[in-house]
């Protein structure tokens, strides 16, 4: 998920260009500026961006040209890195790692693979794992919070599906996000007043409770989802609510495979599918291994891999990408932002978070500007300008915190628009978001001359 070293820039002054090259560079820059202005007024870029392209501010244009000339003269190049850090992914079994210290790991992973690839007689109906009694209790809970009833989906479809071929391997279930969306929201929740997050009772996170039987799992899962109020820090303060209230509707505009009927009941439907998903995972682990073996192994892996994820991520940013002028990050947790500001990274970079952060999903786009390159830091956030520039009447599948767009001026006086964008899985939002950024820049005389850096 990393993409770096797009442009390398020496930190020293570098060797100055000979006068003949300097003159050529200035001539080229001037020609480009004139030609760009011609395109804006004769249908090139202006035609793409619309007819309301603002005239460039003369002072900003002069500053930008002067800055570009200074940059060329010093042989300075911009180094940009972008990384989706996937802050909420805390599954110790997500990747098949090398773990020579414990041979049981290789055995378990091989047996899981065999279970999924060739389940045979173990591919039992869902109702043998997530039982009728469990669904009845879940139904009562969901009715109690005022959600629409989804018993017809259970009786006519889900309870009869085979756990592997009909559920875990169903591509349509994946594209509808009916199991992965509730997992994304409730897998790992950072809470106010605790250094450790609260985790949903499941195999695929840092949950350390007993999952040795399905009844034990179900009791803990039901209590977590409906009876455990959690206090979340937001930009404007804090709020307290149980995890079921954090779930968000699944929109057809963003996930086209979901039907209109499923969209209307997406809250209870995803809750049911999330419960089935977790039940199958617990059943599978207790089938391929004994609980004392796999749970002990999981605890060791969690301690070494997951609990140190944020510090390890910050180490990589500092030691590998610390020479970057601009770093754009996506899916960043509030915890990572705060820890970054208190480390050497915060001394070297302006760490810019969205003015309106998503505290529930806890995944936000963030921008780091090197203080040496941008001594004045960010000038303004223009995310609202981008969002207001979307095509009228078109639903763009972006969520709160997905877009962060700012302006900043570098040490040579070159103005930039820097955007960090978390695109959706299907890439549906990338084009409209980029078009909105370009449209917003074209509509403002103070932004027309800015150079765009777009990280995703």
UniProtKB/TrEMBL annotation:
Bilayer-crossing residues are 21-40
Q: Which UniProt keywords apply?
A: Membrane, Transmembrane, Transmembrane helix
Q: What is this protein called?
A: Uncharacterized protein
């Amino acid at each position: 998920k990393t993409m770096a070293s797009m442009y390398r820039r020496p930190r020293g002054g570098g060797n100055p260009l000979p006068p003949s090259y300097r003159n050529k560079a200035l001539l080229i820059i001037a020609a480009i500026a004139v030609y760009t202005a011609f395109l804006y007024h004769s249908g090139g870029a202006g035609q793409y961006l619309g007819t309301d392209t603002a005239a460039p501010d003369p002072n900003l244009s002069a500053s930008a040209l002067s800055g570009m000339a200074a940059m060329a003269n010093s042989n300075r190049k911009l180094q940009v890195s972008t990384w989706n850090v996937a802050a909420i992914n805390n599954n110790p079994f997500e990747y098949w790692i090398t773990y020579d210290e414990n041979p049981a790991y290789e055995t378990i992973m091989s047996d899981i693979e065999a279970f999924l690839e060739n389940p045979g007689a173990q591919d039992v109906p869902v109702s043998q794992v997530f039982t009728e009694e469990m669904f009845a209790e879940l139904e009562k809970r969901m009715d109690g919070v005022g959600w629409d009833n989804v018993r017809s989906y259970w009786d006519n479809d889900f309870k009869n599906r085979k756990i592997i071929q009909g559920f875990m391997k169903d591509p349509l279930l994946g594209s509808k996000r009916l199991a992965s969306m509730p997992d994304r929201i409730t897998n790992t929740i950072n809470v106010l007043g605790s250094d450790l997050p609260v985790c949903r009772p499941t195999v695929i996170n840092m949950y350390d409770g007993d999952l040795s039987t399905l009844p034990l799992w179900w009791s803990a899962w039901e209590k977590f989802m409906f009876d455990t109020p959690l206090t979340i820090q937001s930009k404007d303060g804090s709020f307290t609510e149980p995890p079921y209230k954090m779930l968000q509707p699944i929109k057809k505009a963003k996930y086209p495979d979901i039907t209109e009927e499923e969209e209307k009941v997406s809250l209870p439907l995803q809750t049911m599918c999330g419960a089935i998903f977790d039940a199958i995972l617990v059943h599978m682990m207790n089938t391929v291994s004994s609980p004392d073996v796999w749970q002990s192994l999981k605890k060791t892996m969690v301690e070494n891999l997951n609990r140190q994820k944020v510090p390890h991520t910050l180490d990589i940013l500092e030691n590998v990408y610390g020479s970057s002028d601009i770093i754009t990050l996506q899916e960043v947790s509030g915890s990572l932002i705060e820890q970054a500001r208190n480390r050497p990274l915060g001394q070297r970079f302006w760490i810019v978070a969205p003015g309106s952060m998503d505290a529930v999903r806890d995944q936000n786009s963030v921008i780091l500007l090197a203080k040496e390159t941008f001594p004045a830091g960010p000038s303004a956030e223009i995310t609202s300008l981008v969002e207001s520039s979307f095509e009228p009447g078109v639903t763009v599948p972006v969520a709160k915190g997905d877009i962060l767009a700012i302006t900043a001026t570098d040490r040579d006086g070159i103005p930039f628009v820097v955007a960090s964008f978390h695109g959706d899985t299907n890439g549906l939002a990338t084009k409209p978001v980029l078009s909105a950024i370009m449209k917003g820049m074209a509509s403002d005389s103070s932004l027309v001359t800015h150079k765009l850096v777009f990280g995703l």
